[in-house]
TrEMBL record:
Domain Wall-associated receptor kinase galacturonan-binding: 29-88
Membrane is among the record's keywords: yes
UniProt GO cellular component terms: membrane
Localisation per UniProt entry: Membrane
Signal peptide boundaries: 1-20
UniProt protein name: Uncharacterized protein LOC120107240
Gene: LOC120107240
Pfam families membership: GUB_WAK_bind (PF13947)
Record field: transmembrane: 294-313
Chief place where the protein resides: membrane
């Protein structure tokens, strides 16, 4: 009789959040920035999403920004179905304007080595490196070897030169000879060298000795339409380790939200009142921090102890 009363008393004391812990509000980590949904594996709050994407996205005055060592990019779209991010660098060249300076205009694209397995430019994205110096690492190699410059997904410099931007470029017509040089160590390297990110693994304009860059990605079959129809910007893809899908699936199936531990960067299933390194049904909780109210495990433990102390009385 008394244990039942005790139990009812405990249940009566349970804060509403704990009673609802079967399903953590999905909004715990999902949010909006402007009209873009920020959801797993990304997060705008520390501890949300996957650790591979920590300290990456920031919402500044309703504009979603992505920060990398090479600079900040505006995020135009997050495609969760195809795991793609569409980025814009306002300082890069496009079909209508060339942005160049001796020190290099624009961000390029450099990812932290630890983040590289999670975030890369899409293999179909072309980087058009502009005005790279003859001493550039791009052009150093063995005599007779060809430049790393090539067409990527049907997009390349031969077509890019047809853009209006080049008509206004000083010496635009006279630069034809520089456009065609194709051997390593050329005294006059090409004005534009198109590369795939995978070929050089970092678009660092100062390291490559380039004055600027453009970037374009293909939408459907663009080849026939020419450079005016290319989408200018950087298309990046993100990926997660395969074993992670099991963790996150189990976490969600038990009503949790997938996150990470801010200290260890390990996987963490956010279960509302507590956090678990596996899922919300498991006892192996890491909910050491109790925010204001008693944690569910302490309550359950308390109830069990209360019940057990009454057993001898029966
Ligand atoms: C967001 O709104 C802009 C116009 O304000 C639009 O061009 C863009 O496609 C929208 N993005 C998404 C993801 O809906
Ligand atoms: C659970 O983890 C998140 C993210 O690391 C943290 O913000 C929150 O305070 C943790 N909650 C508990 C109860 O430990
Ligand atoms: C780019 O290269 C320069 C020179 O090699 C180096 O100092 C700089 O740290 C690099 N930038 C990034 C973002 O890696
Ligand atoms: C790139 O494609 C164009 C035609 O679209 C072709 O003329 C050119 O030779 C190609 N360049 C390279 C480096 O393959």
């Amino acid at each position: 009789m008394i244990p039942t009363l005790l139990l009812l008393l405990f249940i009566g004391l349970l804060p509403p959040a704990v009673s609802a812990s079967a399903g953590v509000a999905v909004s715990t980590c999902r949010s909006f920035c402007g009209n873009i949904t920020v959801d797993y594996p990304f997060g705008l709050r520390p501890g949300c999403g996957h650790a591979g994407f920590r300290d990456l996205l920031f919402c500044i005055n309703g504009v979603l920004m992505l920060h990398l060592p090479s600079g900040s990019y505006r995020v135009l779209d997050v495609d969760y179905a195809y795991r793609g991010l569409t980025l814009h660098d306002p300082a890069m060249s496009d079909c209508y304007a060339l942005a160049r300076s001796p020190g290099g205009r624009g961000n390029g694209f450099v990812v932290e080595p630890w983040r590289a397995p999670y975030l890369q430019p899409d293999p179909d994205n072309v980087f058009l490196l502009l005005g790279c110096r003859a001493e550039s690492p791009l052009f150093q190699g063995f005599p007779g070897k060809h430049l790393p410059c090539r067409n990527v997904s049907g997009m390349g410099c031969e077509e890019y030169y047809r853009c209006p931007a080049w008509a206004e470029f000083p010496g635009g017509g006279g630069a034809t000879s520089r456009r065609d040089s194709a051997a390593y160590g050329a005294a006059s390297p090409p004005e534009c060298c198109a590369v795939e990110f995978g070929a050089i693994r970092a678009i660092n304009l100062s390291h490559l000795g380039c004055e600027g860059y453009s970037s374009a990605y293909s939408l459907a079959p663009v080849r026939a339409l020419g450079p005016g129809a290319w989408a200018y910007g950087i298309r990046a893809t993100y990926s997660l380790p395969a074993e992670h899908q099991g963790f996150c699936g189990a976490c969600r199936a038990t009503g949790g939200v997938c996150g990470y531990d801010e200290t260890t960067n390990g996987n963490l299933c956010l279960c509302g009142d507590r956090n678990s390194t596996s899922n919300c049904d498991s006892v192996g909780s890491t909910g050491a921090s109790v925010d204001g109210s008693l944690s569910l495990s302490i309550l359950v433990g308390g109830i069990l102890i209360a019940m057990m102390t009454w057993i001898p009385a029966f």
